[in-house]
Design goal:
The complex is a heterodimer of chains A (112) and B (113).
Chain A: E1 3-5, E2 10-14, E3 19-21, E4 24-26, E5 33-39, E6 46-52, E7 60-61, E8 64-69, E9 74-79, E10 88-95, E11 100-102, E12 106-111
Parallel strand pairs in A: 2-12
Antiparallel strand pairs in A: 1-4, 3-9, 5-6, 5-10, 7-8, 8-9, 10-11, 10-12
Chain B: E1 4-7, E2 10-13, E3 19-25, E4 31-37, E5 43-51, E6 54-57, E7 64-66, E8 76-78, E9 87-94, E10 103-104, E11 108-112
Parallel strand pairs in B: 2-11
Antiparallel strand pairs in B: 1-3, 3-8, 4-5, 4-9, 5-6, 7-8, 9-10, 9-11
The chains are: A mainly beta (112), B mainly beta (113).
Chain lengths: 112, 113
């Protein structure tokens, strides 16, 4: 069974600064995908970024990038130039052919 | 616009009552999923379906039932056997190929009277 651990229940960042959210996972699978989802106060789950495990290159989406360390089973999310709209719960998720397994989330606060 | 709709937004259940949550998608996705989210926790998988007329139990299927008669629809019934149904319920769908990125509906909040 897969497990996903997010060890930071809450994080805070100043507007325009950079913040990194941590995620580690445990699996015996060789073919999988990793995701970061954002859940704002509306509670809608929004895909932030996706990484295929077979790709060595780290994924980037505008201000969002990941640091994927396959051997260490680590998948951190870096948010650059933080904006007030980035304030939300962020969930790391591990995906196989049939399902996603989610971490418990990190609440990100963005301050002026 | 393509997307996933869930209804109702809020649902109240009386003791011993079965209630059904609706999930519809027009993304032409093959796979659909139901998750439960409790306060301060991540999402836990209840049921999933990768094709019409077929579905599998997830991690917390007890007290729930589903059907998949149409590709677009995947309703979830919370039965009276579910003793603690108060939670936020999210439906998702994905293609059946590649990374199977899941896209989510807006959710249904279920409360027990």
């Amino acid at each position: 069974a897969q497990t996903v651990t997010q060890s930071q229940p809450e994080m805070s960042v100043q507007e325009a600064e950079t913040v990194t959210l941590s995620c580690t996972y445990d699996t015996s699978e060789s073919d999988y995908y990793l995701f970061w989802y954002k859940q704002p106060p509306s509670r809608q789950m929004i895909l932030v970024i996706r990484q295929e495990a077979y790709k060595q290159q780290n994924a980037t989406e505008n201000r969002f990038s990941v640091n994927f360390q396959k051997a260490a089973k680590s998948f951190s999310l870096k948010i650059s130039d933080s904006q007030l709209g980035d304030a939300a719960m962020y969930f790391c998720a591990f995906g196989t052919a049939s399902k996603l397994t989610f971490g418990t989330g990190t609440r990100l606060q963005v301050t002026l | 616009d393509g997307g996933i709709t869930q209804s109702p937004k809020y649902l109240f259940r009386k003791e011993g009552q079965n209630v059904t949550l609706s999930c519809e998608q027009n993304l032409n996705h093959d796979a659909m999923y139901w998750y439960r989210q409790d306060p301060g926790q991540g999402l836990r998988l209840i049921y999933y379906s990768q094709i019409v007329n077929d579905f599998q139990k997830g991690d917390i299927a007890e007290g729930y039932s589903v059907s998949r008669e149409k590709k677009e629809s995947f309703p979830l019934t919370v039965t009276s056997a579910q003793k603690n149904p108060t939670a936020f319920y999210l439906c998702a769908s994905s293609t059946d190929r590649g990374p199977k990125t899941q896209y989510f509906g807006p959710g249904t909040r279920l409360l027990v009277l």
